[in-house]
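To make this tangible, this section ends with a sequence with its structure tokens:
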Amino acid sequence: MAWNRTMLRHALCAGAAGSVIAVAPAAHAQQRGTNMQTQGLEDIVVTARKREEASQRVPLSITAISGAALEQRNFKSIDNLASVAPNLTITQSASSIAGVNIAIRGIIDANPTVYTNDPPIGLYLDGVYLGRTAGGIFDIVDVQRVEVLRGPQGALFGRNTTGGAVSITSSKPSDHFGFQQKLSYGSFDEWSSRTRVDFGELADTGLTFRVTYQHRQRNGYTNNILQPDNRDPGALKTDTVFASLHGEWDSLKWDVRGDYQARRGVPAAMQLTGASALVQQYYALSPLLGGRTFQISDTRQKDQAYDFRGFSHSRVWGISNTLQYDLSDAITLKSISAYRGLNNHEFSDLSGQTGMRGLVLNPVDFSVSVQPVSPFQSSNRSHQRQFSQELQLIGTSDRLNYTAGLYYFRERVGQVNPQYYTYVFSPGPGLPPLGYNLQRSPTYTGTSKSYAAYGQASYTPPILNDKLELTVGGRYTKDKRMIDQDDTQFGFPATTPPFARKLAKSWQNFSYNVSVAYKFTENANLYARYATGYKSGGFSSQDINDDGYGPEKVKSYEIGLKSEWFDRRLRFNIDGFYTDYKDRQLTVFVASASGGAGTTTQNAGRSTYKGIEAEITALPVRGLLLEGSIGYVDPKFKTYLFNPNPGDPASQPINVADQARFGYASKLTTHVAAQYTFPETGFGTPSVRVDYDHTGKRYFQPLDIVSPLQFKTVDPGFDDLRAQISLTGIPLTERIKADLSVYGANLLNDTKHVVSGIDFGSLGFSEVQYQMPRSFGASLTIAY
């Protein structure tokens, strides 16, 4: 593995924060109080193997963080979790208020708004798989812990976890009455109010109940000079409710959890960074024809001017019912039933330009007139409903632990995506460029069903002083999918006529894993793991020339060390991995004159990923916590088959592996942090914390021959410095305490970081979405 200067610089930086090379807590506990200071680092109980066990004992690459630590860092929504684990990036989708892109070890789904494409990273809430990440950004209001599992999780978590999984567990109700109120205010007039009520045990029934409600809103952070602040790009209002009912009687446990979130806002600004000479020449005439000026810049613009088309809306909700019954002291039966829904209606001005006028050709009589024109506008109305049922049998003995299960998943999706755009062309030498005003409306509905049976067992043989553990697991999956597709295009001579078709396919797979773990000491565990995974095939709903693509399959080799030293005051975890993908699914953004804009997914070929991850947490002196991480992944295409002329029956795919890039993937992620907790005073416990994160350079499209302007969309990387000063446990009365904190994010004001970028190819322009600028805030929490 080649180490460059950038990697060396960040490795040294990580070493300064803790020693050795890299950093980030493999598991956090709440970073306050004296418990950690007197007893060493605490561990988190996780369910990565469908049973409760300490994260340091699990023989796979996992990072866990407690809800208390999330609260202490002032994380507001799921996209803030990017810094908690090496080789993890989470970003908001382009021109969306609710979609999220999650990448682990360079594996990512670049377009979650296409509901027929499954993500390669499984997102779970209370053990329930969330089929769509289009509504994956939700506010963090009542979380017990988050687990990030890196590498294929096909045996226990199933299909679509070829890159890994992110599992979120909400908090359980308390046995006693309690009340908490949190108020926050910050930059861009952002304020939030969160109310949490524990009702305690309900009339000696054994049932406890908790409900949490949060309202959060802010103005936009890019100034639209034509609109008020609450309609600026980035403006947002959210209302979130989490409720949980817990019952426990002898051998029976019962949990009912519900969540609801409504989001309304204006997507973050998309800004043109590049355009062909022809496109620039055409729109340069706009002011002369009574329109606005064509704006293009390769640096972030604080001010933009475009018309308001309406607020985007997103609603996500779900309910789960979990029953757990102990058949004996050694065997437990568990059932998880869940229903979830998602509605999105989003507006996209992907060019960031409105109010322009241009010379437009009428394709009927070939007359030319001045009309409103736009590089690209669209809207998206979509919905999803899912039901899942899982049965688990969990057993344990002195030497054998096992889990077996049955799983069923059913999903219905639908989407309407009208698009409006101007295609610019040259009518001939010496003549000014002209435009066609075009429209396209791809529409589809789809269903999918998945059936699975799985099992995993871990055995400690009576040799080597019981220090050896052998684990084997497997899962059989059968998937069925159907799509009903309609597509209309008009406004261009000889366009494709209205198009409609139905497609249906099915696949089956067996994935498995084998691991060996050896405990050198009680606190040092070496493991090796081999795992396979499977991502379901599907349909490119926005590509009328595509008849579907097959599954991708993955093989992963991993070796790692988990260790703790000096009475658990130093924790050091490290792993290396090699992953081989076959029939790799790649989603490519394609734009054309007659076809508008959309994505197509293909089985491009074979690719490999190799890399390293390391984490360290240290308590060198009383009150001081040092932590950090480094992740590096080196992806390579072995085969990338690309058809340069897919509409030509004679055209044959060619191997462009030496030209292809890995979209949205950062090779390097680093994190360092230092926190000092001062001795407790009569007015509370003061603390200060500083975090620094770096992600490396990213490209967004795989092929320059398809995306000739993508060099104008490259993300140079992100340097994020955050800080927080807190005073916790302020005694207001004997039973009422308060916490007060002030915080800042993106303190370096890195305005070059590109969250997402799109090259519109033959339409002749490219655009990006920039990171939110520097912000500050303060919060007050009162708890009874």
Q: What stands out?
A: The longest strand covers residues 434-459. The chain has one domain: 5-783. The mean pLDDT is 89. The first helix runs from residue 5 to 18.
